[in-house]
Design a protein that fits this description.
It contains two helices and three strands; from the N terminus they run αββαβ. It has helices spanning about 5-35, 50-65; strands at about 35-40, 45-50, 70.
Length: about 90
């Protein structure tokens, strides 16, 4: 199977655009979708569900294999702090 780099680049660009849309809507999403996964397509929330797998299946069945950003809406993302190893000697 031959990979088309232009197509891959376009899909990645579209995915990044959807992620930016999600991040820009974050405050408004918290009001309606906290605890749910949302599907952002063409800059808008097109579907949501508490079950990520169900949302993904439903989205692709409805829209086909197109770039989409799916993430869980949480009031505050957990940040994991991992100390870096120290060099001895």
């Amino acid at each position: 199977m031959k990979v088309n780099p232009t197509s891959t680049h376009n899909k990645l660009s579209a995915f990044k655009k959807e992620k930016r849309a999600f991040l820009s809507m974050k405050e408004n999403l918290n009001k309606q979708y906290v605890g749910k996964y949302v599907a952002v397509y063409r800059g808008n929330v097109v579907d949501s569900d508490i079950d990520e797998s169900a949302l993904i299946c439903r989205f692709y069945k409805t829209h086909g294999k197109v770039p989409v950003y799916i993430d869980k809406v949480e009031e505050k993302k957990k940040v994991l702090k991992v100390p870096t190893p120290r060099r001895i000697g």
